[in-house]
User: Fold these one by one.
Assistant:
Number 1:
Amino acid sequence: MKRESPGSEIRINRLEALTDGVFAIAMTILVLSLEVPSRSQVTSQSELVQNIMSKGYQFLSYFISFFVIGSIWISTIRRTHILNKTDYKHLWLNMLNLFFVTTIPFTTSLLGDYGEYEFAEVLFHLDILILETIALVQWQYLMNNKDLIREDAIDDSNLIYYRKVYIFHVIVPLLGIAVSVFTPVWSNLVYLVIFFRVFFIRR
Amino acid sequence: MKRESPGSEIRINRLEALTDGVFAIAMTILVLSLEVPSRSQVTSQSELVQNIMSKGYQFLSYFISFFVIGSIWISTIRRTHILNKTDYKHLWLNMLNLFFVTTIPFTTSLLGDYGEYEFAEVLFHLDILILETIALVQWQYLMNNKDLIREDAIDDSNLIYYRKVYIFHVIVPLLGIAVSVFTPVWSNLVYLVIFFRVFFIRR
Amino acid sequence: MKRESPGSEIRINRLEALTDGVFAIAMTILVLSLEVPSRSQVTSQSELVQNIMSKGYQFLSYFISFFVIGSIWISTIRRTHILNKTDYKHLWLNMLNLFFVTTIPFTTSLLGDYGEYEFAEVLFHLDILILETIALVQWQYLMNNKDLIREDAIDDSNLIYYRKVYIFHVIVPLLGIAVSVFTPVWSNLVYLVIFFRVFFIRR
Amino acid sequence: MKRESPGSEIRINRLEALTDGVFAIAMTILVLSLEVPSRSQVTSQSELVQNIMSKGYQFLSYFISFFVIGSIWISTIRRTHILNKTDYKHLWLNMLNLFFVTTIPFTTSLLGDYGEYEFAEVLFHLDILILETIALVQWQYLMNNKDLIREDAIDDSNLIYYRKVYIFHVIVPLLGIAVSVFTPVWSNLVYLVIFFRVFFIRR
């Protein structure tokens, strides 16, 4: 039994549009985790200042999640950019990836509210871990199915280099889980190492 | 009286952009059905764990709806891909389709909260049933109006094959309604058969 | 003093992307006007059925608003399609138009909750009236500034025909206001005449 | 150590799609700052009228923020339009810019609810100040890295002219902060000077 190929019907640009849409929305609704205090809670300017200042940790969580989603988006672009066509397995892996992107506003909000509990931290890191693992699996899948890759993008040294990058991105949330055992509250700062990737991985 | 044709003004790519936008948003705001517990409800880590664990069924509903919307999106792409132009009837059928996509976050949320009640399950399946029926009607409409189809996409065996696929997709929510009479809570698992479509429909 | 022309920097396709995004989001978040009842309100299936059934009017308002936004989107496409370039006046008129699109989820929600009050109905119709008036002004602006129009789209009989269509769309919410004086609750049904436009306006 | 260039993988059009998505969502969810009164608060039409009328200042804040975001979007388009390729620094500056766009629905909502407190006003102006400063830095970065600019867009007089525009946009929120010391409530009206930019900056 031959599975029909969706390659001709599912054009890459539609997949890109859906993907960019989901990422844009997930990044933007992160802000909904910051609640404006109701007028019954706040009766003077000093109370307002106090209320907003107490949201510092929620703001940090939101800030970090924004950039984590941003880095995942960049890695998604890289995987789509080399595509020649898609097949059902690749397509559904992509959907699974998008699904876990949509969960980030929830785990971020939980983290912002309950960052002192290891559970909230670990849940957040697990979310990212799953996302990054799917990304690695997708990359490996493309390496194993070179007919899906554009001819001018099949450069083995490049593919191998980026596999290292994907492995690096899987390690970061694992590191986060390890750190959260010792100091839950600040464990999401580990994602800052993403900006220093070039010091860890060389071509 | 001749209806003016919108074919020249309504470019397919705009319709695609609106469609992808609506799908991306509907898929992403599903997450809003998961509520972060307020600090007054949760005072210890074990209470947090318990609260999150109790959301298991809501999470499952959200997960399944995400993939149901995903499969509907793929079927939408297929119908748009073969388009040469659009006319008002086709356009409004498409809008009707999008309308019912936007209702899914509501029926999903209801399902997640009240999954033990047959009513919530049936409402969800009805929502999908309407969506899939509109999709089938749209496909049949295209088959009856071949001037709307791109010349290289008019392949009758292909059109007939996919009509079977559309009929299959109408049957799944009907199956869901039948199952929900016996066991409401798990009736939305029927949508998993979508992933095994190839075993049911051959070219 | 010559105003610099933004024509070369503001590409039409970006304006289209922003426009389609705003419309897609406004259409999709209409669903947030339907609230899932909290578990403390509903303790049996019959209560759930009753609760959902009582949302009938909210659902109708949401349904009608969806299609009103849809029809406004189609009219937006028509105006953008003929564009050769944009200038600041045209661009800000477009932004003003988008602003009032974003208000529709609010006026719709108000209508769904307070449809028995003439005030809620009139506010909704006023919202649409402003939108349709801006659309008409934009069309007239294009007719007066033919350098903004693509050469192959400058067909005066066509431009005049669609001006009639735009005037027709301004009349519908005025009709809605008139009807709401007599029977507030059902005044938003007047928008159904949009589907029968061809019987009123001939080329 | 040479940083790998993302120029070939991160296509500009994907960056545009994400950007337009984030702006469209931020502009549209501003409306969520207007709350529909619950039925327990409102029992007669006159109470509804009163409730809605009391939202006048919230509506004004929402209206002004919409156009401020709109003007930032236009300035974003201008920066992207001249791009030949992107590099990681430029890309992350862009992400930082998008991050602060997503915060505007929060600061707007705060402003709408607590406009009489200088703190809420200053926070809003600070938000815009940061955004406009990042925009200026990005523009200067492009001027310093002309390889990122399309050849036909490298026109020094044009680049210098728009730097003045970017500086102008940094001054406006500073003005807002100054005004808010004297009269907090109306300080966001300073953004109206954006529409009169041409009177301040000449080529």
Number 2:
Amino acid sequence: MNAEYFLDRGKELVRLLKSRKVHSFLSKNPSLIFHLTGLHETPGYLLVLNGEVRFVTDRRFQKEAAEIKHFISSDIFTNSIVTYLKPLRKEFKQPAIEYGRVTHAEYLSLSESLKCTFTDAGDAVNQFLSVTDGLQLDSFIRAADVTSELFNYCKKVFDENLAITEKELAYELQSILVRNAAQKYSFEPIIAADENSAKPHHTPSDRNIQDCKVLLVDLGVIYSGICSDVTRTYIRNHPKAGRIEKIVHNGFKRVLGKVNAGVKVSELAQMWKAELEKVNMTHNFTHALGHGLGYEVHQIPRISEYSKETLKENQIITLEPALYFENEFGYRYECDILVTKDSGINLTVF
Amino acid sequence: MNAEYFLDRGKELVRLLKSRKVHSFLSKNPSLIFHLTGLHETPGYLLVLNGEVRFVTDRRFQKEAAEIKHFISSDIFTNSIVTYLKPLRKEFKQPAIEYGRVTHAEYLSLSESLKCTFTDAGDAVNQFLSVTDGLQLDSFIRAADVTSELFNYCKKVFDENLAITEKELAYELQSILVRNAAQKYSFEPIIAADENSAKPHHTPSDRNIQDCKVLLVDLGVIYSGICSDVTRTYIRNHPKAGRIEKIVHNGFKRVLGKVNAGVKVSELAQMWKAELEKVNMTHNFTHALGHGLGYEVHQIPRISEYSKETLKENQIITLEPALYFENEFGYRYECDILVTKDSGINLTVF
């Protein structure tokens, strides 16, 4: 039953905040609002006060707010959130907001009007949202399914060597996405032929991909709010790219074999670095090895050798080993991995 | 020549900031970056220092940065923007950022690391971006053109009384959008049949629109970064909606007749309010009369009776008079208007 998920989520947030000595909390984080209320694209505020969670919005969304059935109460402010909060000010006990989610202007407005010092609950919320439950996993599996459809199409285009530009392919893929009822891309897709693939963040151009020897496609979709993020690189008649493909895939397998709840993410990054050192290619890899995935396409943990985090059960992360050769080509392989107690399950085997 | 537009934009920003006694300025506002560099979806910072504008990004985007030809220099930071700025600290004179564009966390990081007090240049930047030049107007006209295609399709679906759900229609329209090479919707479209149209911000549902008597469609597209935002309401066999349609369209015409550079936006809102008072329907209108349009779908000026702004030449604004009858229907008519010295030109006559 979906409602139980929502009930558990609210309780867990209150518990987590309490454990960090936060007794009141205000948030306009859309991911957190969606997670606790099921409301999508509905601006408003979550207010944790006296152990309860309330959703507060303006009268444009009163109908949506009234329809929340998930054991969270809702309320409407008529003027602004500040005037709504003022009468409740005395109930605020060790209040917190997310420093990384409010603008400095909003911070000033809230703390000056309410005469409050807010601490930062950003880390607690990020930890909370980094672990998925069954409802989110269902959405992720649908997202992965739509993503695989898009890559089937890319492979077909590459195998049949069709005349199409990078930009046109991005449009074609978006049509498939729309027909498959995923909401939208989780980020602007990267479609990069030959030397364009050497740029990790290439924007699809008017370059025709016909007769290219390397085609890198990095894209993700949003399904019921949950993001996928996958890269495949297609190659043909390119001996160097063939060698690089083997290095990247072997590295991927070694790192994946090390994934489990409790492992330090820095160890994963170091393992990939060791692979690169063997072939003297450390400077051909220019980004993090991966990142958490959920309502946002980049969330904690950041998988880098400098990161202090450990993997948690039921996190979804990407692993994206890659090698780039300027003005030549790049090869990246990115999968989405569910972290379990003892292993990592590749949810994007296609 | 496009490059001249970019040159003028950079000079104008420096001039505007100087006139407000701001001599150094740091911004990561994507709209401002696109406006000054032509770079789309390229994270980085604009730095105004000693009368010059520089774009600073990390090495993932060094190729893009190197390709800026528009008389703006570029630079790469290797660690973080803070470490990049530290050696330049002594050159900072009356530095500013946009309080409404940096998070509180970023504000703390910048001001603590650089030991600087930043003032707020948000208002200057918003004013700067609220006035369009010829290059932006070209993009807007293309955006309006794609938007009219989408509404042609809606009208056809309504006139032919096809069996299709609100959600499916949103998907169909997105396919047309993609084929027309507009980037994407400027916001999640509102497609609302019968009583759903009474909610100003209805999300497309699984409701079939066949045989509906009122169909409200509110959508916009982004073309070369510029947003459109249009609403049409289709009705049939609904005498009350027919009467309301006349009130809304008459009000629209009266307000449009009043638009020119220099008019107070509060006067426009009051004029519409006076129309509503005549028919005793003030409480059936629940949002602002309109808003500025540009790189963002909601920007200054906000057209409300409480607003203190005056219209400026070459602003693009929406006018969206509407009337809502709970559990019955809503009727909204929204057009995008170019403000000229003497009048308002409706750019969305379709």
